[in-house]
Amino acid sequence: MSSASIPAGRQDRLVLLNPGPVNVHEDVRAAMASPDQCHREPEAAALMSRVREKATRITGGDERHTSVLLAGSGTAALEAAFSSIVPADGRILILDNGNYGERLWRIVDVHGIPHVRMEFGWCNPIDVDAVDRALAADPSITHVGLVHHETSTGQLNPLREIGEVVARHGRQLAVDAISSLGSEELDMAADHIDWCVGTANKCLEGLPGVSFVTASRERLDALASVRPGTFYLDLYGHYISQDRKHAPLFTPALQVMTALEEALDRALAEGVVGRGRRYLALAERIRAGLAERGVRFLLPVGRRANSVTNVYVPDGMAYQELHDGLKAEGYVVYSTQEQLVGVFRVANMGQLGESDVDGFLAAFDRVVAKYTDTRW
Questions:
Q1: What pLDDT, on a 0 to 100 scale, did the predictor assign at position 287?
Q2: pTM for this structure?
Q3: List of domains in the chain
Q4: How far apart are CA 359 and CA 13, in angstroms?
C-alpha cells in the first residue's frame, strides 16, 4: 500500500473491520512473493495437492473427501457448485434470510436450475420445522442450499439442525461457508454437509483470489452424469483435472495459492475452536464498547456469529459520514445492503488485537462527536 492511500496520521496500516478481505499475518503476505513458476510444472501440482488436502481438513473432511480449487472469489466457487450439482431431473430448495441467501437464489435462477425459494425475511431465523415440512411435502427437491453465516445481518444460521433434517429426508445439503469456515464450528460429517464452499480471504485469513468446494469423492464422481452449467466453472471438470491429471484445468493464481497454504497452516495450528475463541473475545470487546455508547444492535444476543457485529448508525449522522471519518482515522467499517439502510458492520476477522478494537472505539467517539451532541 502506498503512503498516498493511507489516511493522514496513519502511516502503518488500515485496520480492516470489514468482513473480508482481512488484515493478514506478515508470513501470509510474504508468501505472495513466491518465485514465478509455470502452472504445468510438478512443483505447482504439488502446491495444489497440498492446499486441497489442507482445505479439506479445515472443513472436518477426512479421507473420503477432497477439495476442488477455483481461481476467483468465494462467489466463483458458489457458482461452480450450485450450477454443477443439481441434475436435470433435480430441484434445489434455497433457504433465504439475507443478502447472501438471495445470492444463492440468483445463481440458480440465472442458470435456469429448477428451484424453490423459502424467504424467511432479513434478520429472522430460519424455521427448521418449516424446512422439514417443505421437504416432506415435495419429493422433487433433491438439494438444499444454506448460508451458514449471513453477514448481511451477522446472523449464524442453524447448520447442524438443518443438516440433520436434510439428511433424514435423504437430500443433499450445499453450504455457503464463505464467512464462517475457520472460526465457526463446522464438520462435513457431523453436520451432514454434502457440498461446502469456502474462500481464502475471510476467517481463513488468506488473500483474495482462491476459493474451493469440498465434498466427498463419491459426490464428485457422481457429477460425471450431470451436464455442466458453465465452461470455466465446471466443477466436475476442475475435479477430474486436479484429482486425476494432477494439473489445473485453467491457469490458477499460484502466488495467492501459496499465501493460502501459509494461512491454512496457521489456521490448522490454531484450530477452529481456538480461532473461534479469539474472534469471540474480540467481538465481545467490540459489542461491550458499543453497548456502553448506547449504540443499537441489529440482532439479539444468541443469534450473532463470532466475527461480525451489525449495528445502527448513531442518530444525527449518516453512514457515509461515519465511514469516511473512521477511515481518516485508519479504520474501515462496512455498510449493509440497501434493505438495511442505516446499519453498518464491524467485523473482527483477521489479524486483529485488543489494541485495534480499543483504537476503533476511541476513533468512533471522535467521529461521532463531530456530528452529534453525544459525549460518552
A1: 98
A2: 0.94
A3: 3-17+271-371 (3.90.1150.10), 27-269 (3.40.640.10)
A4: 13
